[in-house]
Design a protein that fits this description.
Length: 107
Amino acid sequence: MAIPSLEQLADVVGLARSRRISRSDHIGTYSYKVHGAGCLFVSDSGTQVDVDFAADGSEIFDLWRLRWYGLSLPEPLDVTDQDIRCAVQSLQPLLTEVRPGWFSVAN
């Protein structure tokens, strides 16, 4: 099934909810699985990107999702929660905390 064109990545959730696309499938070299307010994308190499979507459609993520991303890399990166927190803090103002423990890329 062809994916209708998306204006933003969050549209995949709406398309799945309206049954215009499957809740899980492959797009190019990625598989996707819609869950709750977000979607898990997995590349053919196994790298995982799991995001939720805010009401405005922006991608948001928490430290747990960052940890799983690191562990899924071809050369896994296993860091502590404290290391992840420090890394996220060092990236501000590029990252914005949209609610406690949840982040988005600043506009």
